[in-house]
Amino acid sequence: MKSILPHFAFAALFAAPLLAADPTPAAPATPAATAPAKPKLKIIPGQVIVPTNPGEMRRIWGELISLDPKTRTGKFRNESDDKVMSFTIMPYAELLHHAANGDLQDFRVGERAIFRLHEREPEEWVWLTYIQDQMNMMNGHKEYYRVDKIDPEKGELTVTQMNFETNFIREEGILLETDKDTRYWKDGAPAKFSDLKIGDRLRTKTHGVGQGKTKVCWEVFLDDASLLKFQSEQKAVHSKRMAEQGAPGYVDKAADKDLQLTMFREGDEVWKTLKAGQKVKVASAGVDREPTATPVTATIATAQAAGGLGKLSLTLDEPAAGFAVTGLARLWPVK
Q: Is the domain covering 58-132 a CATH 1.10.10.10 domain?
């Protein structure tokens, strides 16, 4: 930085002989004020907050141990140190299954996935804002396993995880195991282990064995068409689920006939179609996100998207009890 001091230094140089010496030592320069550290972003129940800055989240590969749909809690084994970790799923968490939106019932015990956790209390990493299965991770990052070695006798593959263009390598020397329950897919149809060839680019759905980083394949996709078939099936399941169970969201305001909601990303195919003047049904919901009251009808006053979320203002046809600020609600369009 360019200094503004030279002019003062120059004047002092000529004035110095005329000044009496000051025996008091000069006070040390005061350092410039240090900007206060930015506080960590925290989860606040009742609001959609996903802290992702350094130190605000942990993304851990692990093996799913249990899920409780009533309390929306679960446990997984951290495959890097075998530690069992408990988590509480935030109502707006993204449960990404087969490279699409999913819900708790879609995941299998033993499945390997990435669990994104945040602090509830200092060093208590419990709040969960996504479970991302292996298919979603590889599809989203456009990555594949390149087959480097095949051991037909052991049913093992040695692979390199990389992007299709091969200009990014995430990891080399990965061992994929198969067993009698492994299924193989090519062109969306059943295939066999013998269809695998050196140099193939594939994706998998794997599970653990209770310790370490072992990867045993449940599904092996020899091409994109096969993974996309599973993805399309999952999307259809999710759409049906949203239509039947209603799109979920938080209650931001509940006063007489005025109801304001923040709609979660997983239901965007429902709330993105809504317009002012349209009729809907809405019900309060519990921790398990199941309705706790009979749905009531309402009219959309305003509807807009905000950062991947939906913001809805509703006018209820009649005052309704059960809605509480920071509580949950489910919503259905009236056809």
A: no
